[in-house]
Amino acid sequence: MGEASDVSGIRAFLFDQDGVIVDTERDGHRVAFNRTFAEFGFPVEWGVEEYHELLQVGGGKERMKHYLATRGFGVDVAPDTAPDLIQRLHVRKTDIFVELIESGALPLRPGVRRIMSEAAALGVTLGICTTSNERAAQAIAGHLLAGIPLAFVLAGDVVKAKKPDPAIYLLALERCGCQPDQCVVFEDSHIGAVAATAAGMHVVATTNQYTQDEDLSMAELVVDCLGDAGGPPARVQRSVRHFDLSDGCVHARELIEWFSTS
């Protein structure tokens, strides 16, 4: 890792995974859930818009529990068998999702590798904080983010309460040894931004199809992506004050300086 940055007190960049690092929700997790339901013989298929609604429940197992309790799986499921069923469904769903990642079917979102590399060169600690399954998170870290010096990957059931509870970000503070205002969190959703804000951290929101209309007013900067040179440019959707995107990219040094003068 490079010399610690001398431009501010920002010491850590923390990234949510799904929808931030990879646009996994619509064409990754949703697809994996539907294939799993089909394999188990359940006449359930989560549509694009329906899955958006379900994303308001943090965590895959929790999402299925909620759906089973409110809408059912189309066949009778005895209450005493539900916990084991949900666990088996989630294991198989994770297998399918990891296969999608390893096949290269789900690329990184624009600017993610670039800004991580920039931050690492400045001595900024990098971490992932996600409600996604541990295996799924490690697959993305190990394959799509190979070569990026991640200090930690916090995922799945590493904390008891999932986003919008701030527990995972409070744990991240312990892992990186930082104060809340020394951390910039990259989130894409309302519940994620609420969690990071509750932990006292700075928030940059990078929206996607599912989250572009969500309430992200707690984020200090909202962009549609982080931007890549020669690729999709970033566009500011909302900011608490002017943020320069002269080359269409959100750069680590500029972001650090921006938060330093807030």
Defining traits:
alpha/beta; globular; single chain; DNA polymerase, domain 1; 262 residues; 9 helices
Q: Supply the CATH architecture of the largest domain.
A: 3-Layer(aba) Sandwich
By CATH reckoning, the class of the largest domain would read Alpha Beta
The CATH topology name of the largest domain reads Rossmann fold
Residue share in helix = 25-40%
Beta strand count: 7
CATH superfamily of the largest domain: HAD superfamily/HAD-like
How many structural units, i.e. domains? 2
Helix/strand/pairing category: alpha/beta
Anisotropy-based shape: globular
Biggest sheet overview? 7 strands, mixed
Task: Write down the Rg.
Answer: 18 Å
**What's the overall average pLDDT, rounded?**
93
Q: What percent of residues are in strands?
A: 5-15%
What is the count of helical runs? 9
Widest sheet, order of strands: 3-2-1-4-5-6-7
- What is the terminal separation in angstroms? 27 Å
Order of helices and strands: EHHHHHEHEHEHEEEH
Low-confidence region ranges = 1-8
Outline the structure in words.
This protein has 2 domains: 12-23 and 107-260, Rossmann fold; 26-102, DNA polymerase, domain 1 (Orthogonal Bundle), CATH 1.10.150. It contains 9 helices and 7 strands. It has helices spanning 24-39, 48-54, 60-70, 82-102, 112-121, 134-144, 167-176, 190-198, 252-260, and strands spanning 12-15, 125-129, 152-154, 183-187, 202-206, 221-223, 236-239. A 7-stranded mixed beta sheet has the order 3-2-1-4-5-6-7, with helices on both faces. Helix 4 packs parallel to helix 6. The longest helix has 21 residues, at 82-102. The radius of gyration is 18 Å and the shape is globular.
